[in-house]
Task: structure prediction
Amino acid sequence: MSTTLRDVSKSYGRTVALHPTTLTLGTGVIGLLGPNGAGKTTMLRLLSSALAPTTGSIRVAGHAVTGSHAERTEARRRIGYLPQEVVFPRGMTAAGFVDYVAVLKEWRDTPARHREVRRVLDLVGLGDRATVRIRALSGGQRRRLAIAQALLGAPDLLILDEPTTGLDPEQRASLRGILSALTCTVLISTHQTEDVSALCDRVIVLDAGRTRFDGTVAELLAVAAGRVHQGPAPSEGAVGTWKTGTGLVRSVGGTPEPGTSIAVDPTVEDAYLLLRATPARGGADQGAHA
Ligand code: ADP
Result:
C-alpha cells in the first residue's frame, strides 16, 4: 500500500516551507535528509495529518489524508507517527501511556488493545518496564516508548522524525533491527547519515523546500565517486577536510595534489556534502525517481 503526495505545498505566511511536491512512497525504508529549515518536519507533519497542506492532496493506503473527516480518520488509523519531541505524562506507566494512545486511535476491543500494547512494548525491548512510571525511565527508554506508540496497529505508513537521537549504539542497532523487519513504508527524517547507509532503500534530500535528490543509496554515493581523497595535504577547494586517525587528511571534493593522494570510497555523508555544495539547477531534481 503506497503513500502519494500530489502537488503538495505548505506556506506559513510568506515563508514557503515546502514547494509543490509530487512523490510516491512505496514499501521499504526511505530516508529524508536535509539541512535545518529544509522542510523535513513540515513534510512529515503533512503526511501525519497533523498539518493541512496549502495546496495538493495526500493519500495513505488508498485513503485521503486531505479528504473528508471520515477519510482522514481512516488514513490516520494506518499511520504511525513519532514526532521529534514527545511530551509525556510523566506520572503514567509505560504501558498506561501506550494504552492511552491506543484508546485515542479508537481501539475499542480492550483485550486486543492490551495484547497490542504488550506486543509493541516487547518489540522495543520495554516489556519488563511496562509498569514503571515514565518519570523513572531513562532518556533512551523514553525514546523507545515513543517509538512503541508509533508502531501500534502495524501501520501502513510509519513516520519517524529523528528516531535515533538519544539512543546509544546498542539501542540504535536494535531499532534498526525492528525497522528493517517491517513490511510497510517507513519514512525517517535524520541527520545521522550512518542510519541512511545502514537502513534505507531510498533517499530523498530536501533543500529549501524542494526535492534536491531522490534515488537509491547507491545513486547518492555515485555523486561522490572519485571525488573523495586521502593524502598528506588537503585538496584545494574541498568542501570538507579533516585529519584522520592515520595522520592522513581526508578531503571531500576539490582538486587533490597529483601523485600524493589516493581516491577512497565515499560515504553517504560525503555524497550529501557534495550535493549540498553544488548549486541547484533552478530547483531541478536529481536521482532516479525525481
Ligand atoms: P526542517 O525540519 O527541515 O528543519 P521545517 O519543516 O521545520 O524544516 O521548516 C521549514 C521552514 O518553514 C523553515 O523556514 C521554518 O522556519 C518554517 N516554519 C516551520 N514551521 C513554521 C511555523 N509554524 N510558522 C512559521 N514558519 C515555520
Q: What stands out?
A: Residues 12, 15, 17, 34, 36-42 surround adenosine-5'-diphosphate (CB under 6 Å).
